[in-house]
Write a structure and sequence with these properties.
Layout (H helix, E strand, L loop, with lengths): L8 E8 L1 H4 L6 H4 L6 E4 L15 E3 L13 H12 L5 E8 L12 H9 L3 H7 L6 H13 L3 E8 L10 H16 L8 E4 L14 H4 L2 H4 L3 E4 L19 H18 L14 H7 L1 E4 L12 E3 L3 E4 L4 E3 L12 E3 L2 E3 L11
Parallel strand pairs: 1-4, 1-5, 2-4, 5-6, 6-7
Antiparallel strand pairs: 2-3, 8-10, 9-13, 10-11, 12-13
Helix pairs in contact: 3-10, 6-7
Length: 350
């Protein structure tokens, strides 16, 4: 850490493909107000509206990855973090992402990247040129710049659609993570990895097979945490190619990334009591009710996975299962799964 670095400026590195880059068009609530405590470091030189210079910090108004991107995972990660953290803490993201890129495109080995890009589509090669055709090195260079003013607290990853179902992905992610730590002088215990699932099978995600691979990441990287995508809405296409989240989906995923990060700091996953909300943005976070769950009947020996949905002040519904705690003095519970071990009636509380 630089002598001039602010210990209350928490920096998170982000990398991945299109869902990290940002595929949704920001809506009014996403653009009208961004807390200036949430900052982004410009990692490309193509920002023209607004004009942003490579390697400089700005308030994180979308797009935060590059000029022609949209809203992605990091947007509501940062907004949620600054709401939950004390008022003297800032949060910055250093985000390098390329739509469609495979994990080899982020290799710390330039020869691997060169070989990968040779076989890539022209549009992907052109986007990679924004990072001098070496995304890993750009991420490291910008991270070192960020270390001059803040402290790296974690790494966010959302990638895998291009590597759908490939077991070798795990070791490749481990290699990237370990090289980042070494190149930046970081310790794994201080800089956890947060990996988000692809669009879930419960909404028809075409790359949901990869979530079974992502689930194994904590066994390969002990400091890795998985961010669940269940219930997050995705873009419906004529071809039924469900691979990108909607704006609402990115808001939910961003919050879930933040919740995982806050848990590692033993911080509650709620806003500070004195946080000043923009009224429109507040409605995105303000839970107004939980949808009732119907009575269920199970045979002895049977089980059922429970789901809880909430309704928010802006009208959107959200699957709150990943954040909920299920308990029962009547039945055996395993997470959100209830098991019937004998004949009885009872209740499960959320």
């Amino acid at each position: 850490m630089s002598a001039e670095a602010d210990p209350n400026f928490y920096v998170y590195l982000c990398f991945g493909q299109s869902n990290m880059e940002g595929n949704a068009t920001p809506e009014a609530v996403d653009k009208d107000f961004v807390d200036p405590r949430f900052q982004m470091l410009a990692c490309t030189a193509d920002f023209i509206n607004p004009k942003r210079n490579l390697g400089e910090w700005y308030t994180a108004t979308p797009p935060i990855v590059r000029q022609w991107a949209g809203m992605g995972m990091a947007d509501y990660f940062g907004r949620t973090m600054v709401a939950a953290l004390p008022a003297n803490v800032k949060v910055g993201v250093v985000d390098v992402a390329i739509g469609g890129i495979g994990i080899d495109g982020f290799s710390p080995d330039k020869s691997v990247v060169d070989n990968y890009l040779k076989g890539a589509a022209d549009w992907l090669q052109n986007t990679a040129k924004l990072y001098d055709s070496f995304p890993y090195q750009r991420l490291v260079d910008m991270a070192k710049k960020a270390q001059q003013t803040g402290v790296i607290k974690g790494i966010l990853l959302h990638q895998g659609e291009t590597d759908n179902g490939q077991q070798v992905w795990l070791e490749k992610v481990k290699n990237i993570y370990e090289h980042l730590l070494a190149d930046l002088g970081l310790q794994a215990a201080d800089v956890p990895l947060f990996a988000g699932e692809t669009v879930n099978a419960d909404v028809g995600g075409v790359c949901s097979l990869h979530n079974s691979i992502i689930a194994q990441l904590p066994t390969v990287i002990p400091t890795a945490h998985v961010v669940r995508s269940n219930g997050c809405p995705c873009v419906e296409t004529a071809e039924n190619y469900k691979i990108h989240f909607t704006a609402a989906g990115y808001r939910t995923m961003g919050k879930r990334y933040a919740y995982e990060a806050l848990k590692t700091m033993s911080m509650p996953t709620k806003a500070q009591a004195d946080y000043t909300w923009n009224e429109a943005l507040k409605k995105v976070y303000e839970l107004t009710s939980l949808e009732p769950v119907d009575d269920i009947t199970l045979r002895v020996g049977g089980s059922k996975v429970l789901t809880v949905w909430g309704v928010f002040a802006d009208g959107h519904r959200e699957n709150l299962t990943p954040e909920a705690t299920f308990a029962s003095s009547d039945f055996e519970m395993s997470g959100n799964t209830v098991k019937a071990t004998s004949e009885k009636q009872g209740t499960v509380t959320v």
